[in-house]
Design goal:
Helix content: 40-55%
Strand content: 5-15%
Radius of gyration: 17 Å
Distance between the termini: 21 Å
Number of helices: 7
Length: 205
């Protein structure tokens, strides 16, 4: 059975959601990222030398890393799930386009605002980061003006990733009120049974 190495509420929530959306069987293994250890005290870096989540151990023990790659792998295991369009289609590249944008512009763009970095960043720098990020969020908000999800009516792996990144905004002391389409999107995705199940499990720590 596949194993997903995760930290509650981190970006590993995205493949956790996708695994549940795809209806696949898997085990969860919690990681302490501060110490790079597992619950049994073993070194997580023996599993993934990068020391990062998400990490997916396949049935044969092969290790797959990087969230945007992992969610595509999971979706391709169940092609009828609709989580990722067919290979070679323009629609598939659109989903990949959004995965890249979320990862490089939104996810990484938000990192300097995380509470754990507050002692090493200035107020002026955080204000600059938020202003830059706000402009990027406005673009995504506009994308969602006339559709339920990033690429249309269908929920895809890109929507799972976007939802997780948006869920961090309250944790950094800000909110989505300037972007009503993002607010509506987050509420729609939060209502999905797979999302509720994943969050409930992770909330247990």
């Amino acid at each position: 059975m596949m194993k997903l190495y995760f930290k509650p509420g981190a970006c590993s929530l995205s493949p956790h959601i996708v695994l549940r959306e795809a209806g696949l069987s898997f085990d969860l293994v919690k990681v302490d990222l501060a110490t790079k250890t597992l619950a049994d005290g073993s070194d997580f870096r023996a599993v993934n030398p990068k020391g990062q989540v998400p990490t997916l151990a396949l049935d044969d023990g092969t290790i797959l890393t990087e969230g945007a790659v992992i969610v595509q792998y999971i979706a391709d295991l169940v092609p009828g799930s609709g989580l990722l369009p067919a290979v070679g289609s323009l629609e598939r590249y659109r989903v990949q386009e959004w995965l890249n944008h979320i990862g490089s512009e939104l996810h990484k763009g938000m990192v300097p605002l995380f509470p754990m970095l507050r002692e090493v960043t200035t107020d002026d720098y955080r204000a600059f980061v938020w202003k830059t990020l706000s402009g990027k969020l406005a673009v995504v908000d506009q994308q969602l003006a006339d559709r339920a999800h990033l690429t249309g009516d269908a929920f895809t792996v890109a929507d799972a990733y976007l939802f997780v990144v948006l869920s961090w905004i309250p944790r950094i002391g800000l909110d989505l009120s300037p972007w009503p389409n993002l607010q509506a999107f987050a509420a729609r995705v939060a209502a999905r049974p797979a999302v509720q199940a994943a969050q409930a499990v992770e909330a247990q720590g």
